[in-house]
Amino acid sequence: MGSGERIEFDNKVVNWIDERLPLFTLMQKEYGVFPTPRNFNYFWNFGAIAMFMLIAMIVTGIFLAMNYTPHVDMAFDSVERIDRDVNWGWMLRDIHMNGASFFFIAVYVHIFRGMYYGSYKKPRELLWILGVVIFLLMMATAFMGYVLPWGQMSYWGATVITNLFSAIPFVGDSIVTLLWGGFAIDNPTLNRFFALHYLMPFVILAVVFLHVWALHICGSNNPSGIEPKGKQDTLPFHPYYTMKDTFGLLVFLVVFCVFVFYAPDYLGHPDNYKEANSLVTPAHIVPEWYFLPFYAILRAITFDIGIPFTDITIISAKLGGVISMFGSIGLLLILPWLDTHPIRSCRYRPKYKFFLLVFLVVFCMLGYVGSQSADAMFFGLPMTLVGILCTTYYYGFFLVIIPWLNNTEKGRDLPKSIHDAVLQAEREKA
Amino acid sequence: MIRSLLLIAVLVLVPVTGFAGGGETVPPPHHHWHFSGVNGTYDKAALQRGYKVYREVCASCHSMKQLSFRNLTDLGYDDSQVKAIAGEYSVVDGPNEEGKMFERPARPSDAFPSPFENDKAAAYANGGALPPDLSLIIKARHHGPDYIHAILTGYKDAPHDAHLLEGQYWNKYMPGHVIAMAPPLSDGQVAYEDGSPDTLDQYASDVVEFLTWAGDPYMETRKRTGMKAIIFLLVFAGVMYGVKRKIWSDVH
User: Fold this and answer.
1) Which ipTM value was assigned to this complex?
2) Range of the domain at B48
3) pTM (whole model) above 0.90
4) Which helix (H) or strand (E) holds B90?
5) CB < 8 Å to B14, chain A
6) Which of A103, A241, B190, B223 could be bridged to A53 by S-S, CB 3.0 to 4.6 A?
7) Chain A to chain B, count of Cβ pairs less than 8 Å apart?
8) Is residue B215 in some structural domain?
9) Pseudo-torsion of CA A115, A117, A119, A121, nearest 10°?
10) Looking at the 3D structure of chain B, how many domains does it have?
11) CATH code of residue B217
12) Residues A94, A245, A271, A339: which is the catalytic one?
C-alpha cells in the first residue's frame, strides 16, 4: 500500500490528493485494472452481494438503533413503535431482519462456491480462514441481534445458546455468568448484547477488509481452478466484473424484495411477536433458519461418552453436543490442510464433486432435522437417528472422505490454461 | 446439476422454518381474505365492523396496548369521528398541579385503555388464564388469520373422553383442544348497522380483518412500495444485463 507506482490523473484536484494520499491509485489498481480471471461464472457474484448486504445491514441497523430501547421493559414495545410510528420504520425493520437471512444466503453460497472450486487451497488458505472467521462473527452478531426484540424466541433462544457455555468444564458457569451479566438472563444481558450487536458489524467490516486484501494479494480463484498464466487469461475488474456483479446483485435484490415487502415474517417465528416471558416456555424452541444445521449437530449427541463398563462420564451429552457443533465449524478452518489434493476445481475431480454434492444435501437435511422437535419421525425413522447419521456424514466427509480422496482420486486432465478452458467450453457448447 | 441441487436446497430449507408443537393440533381451514395476495387490501367496512365486535366483546377481557385511537383513521373514520370514539372512554392522567391523578375523557393520542389494571388482575379475573394482548395476535400465531377465525368458530361439545376442568372449554383448533376462553361470539350478539349478516362466521371474519390490520397497519403501503421497488429493480437488472452483454461481447 502506497509503496507501488502511482498513476497520473488528468484531473488536477484528483492528482493533488493522490500525490499526498494515493487513494485514487489504490482504487484504480485494485478495482479498475485489477486482473481478474476471465472465466468467472455467476457463483462469483456472491462475494460482492455479501458485501452489499453487510453495508445494508449496517445502514439500516444504525437507524434502527436510533429508535430502539435496550431495556427489558421497553425493548419489545420500542420495536413495535419502530414498526408503527417511526417514519418508514416498518421498512427499515423488514429490511434488517430479512437482510440477516439474505446475508447468510449469500455467504452460504459463497462458502459453497469456495468448497466446490477449491478456493481454499494454496496460496489462499489465509483468505479462506479469514472468511470462516467472518462467518463465525456473523453467527454471533445474528444471534445477539435476534435477542434484541425481546420476544419469546429471543429470550428462550438466548437461554438455550448461552447455557451451552455451561457445558465447558470448570469455567463454564463463570462464562455464563459473564455473558448474562448476572445470574439470569435479564436487563444486563440485553444491554451487553445490544452493545456487542452494534460493535460486531464493524469488526466484521475490518475482517472483510483483511479478507479482500488477502484476495488482492493472491488474486481470485476461478471455475477451472488453474492460475492465470498471462494477459489472455484475465480481464480488468472494471468494467467487466463491476457490471456483471451489479447485474447479479440486482437479481438477488429482486428476490430479497419479494420477502421484505410481501412476506416479511415468513423467515421469522410467530412466537417472537409475543413479549419475552421467563415463566412460559415455548412449545418448541428453534433458532433462526440459518443456524438450524448447526443446531441439529448440537442436538445430535444425546448420549454420554465415558469409560466402557464403568459409570465414569468423560464427556457429557451436553458437552459432546457443544464440541461437535463448534467442531463442525472448526473443520472448515483446517479444510486447507485436510484437502491436499493438487487439483482445485470439482470440474476435474468427479469423485470429490459427488461427495461434496452429497454433503450439500446432508447439510440441508441437517437444517430440516434442526427445525423439528426431538421426538419427530422422518419416514418412520426417529429424527434423532437422522440427526446423528447426517452429523456422522458431516464429520466423515472432512475427516475420512477428503483424506481418502487425496490419495486415491486421480482426477481429469487439466487444461493448459484458463484461455484453453474457455475455448474448450465454447467448443462443447457449439 | 448444481443448479437443481441448489434449488432443492432452497426448497428444503425455506419451508421448514415454521410448525411448532404443543399438544394435538388440527390445521385451521384455509380462507381467502380480502387482504391476502399481492394486491390484497383491507376492506374498510369489515375493519369497522371488526372494530365494533372487538369493542363490544373482545375488549372486555383483552387489552390492545400497541394501538391508539388516532390509528382508527386507517379504518376510514375522519378526525372528528375518532375524537368522538375516544371521548367515549376515560383514561387516568396526571399527576396534576396538586399531585393527584385524575380521570379525563380519552383523546385520539391516547392508547386503547386496557380492561384490567395489570396482567395479574387480568389473570385473576379469568380463572388464572391471562387473556393475551390482541395487538399482535395474528402475527404471533402460525397462519394467524385462519387460526384466529378457526378458534372463534371452533367451539364444539367436548368428546366423552375429554377431561375439562371448571372454566375450560373444548375447541377443535386449540392445540390440545382445551381453552380457557368461553365461546366469545354467537349469532346475533353484535348488531351491525350496515346490513351485514349478524352471524358468528361474519363476526369472526370481521374481527380477524380488524386484528390483522391492528398487527400490520402498514400492509397496503408495504405492498405498494414493494411493487415499485421490484419493478424498478427488474428494469434496472434488464438494463444492466444489456450493458453486461455489450461490454462482454468483445471478449468471446
Assistant:
1) 0.91
2) 42-67+111-239
3) yes
4) strand B90-93
5) 267, 289
6) A103
7) 133
8) yes
9) 90
10) 1
11) 1.10.760.10
12) A245
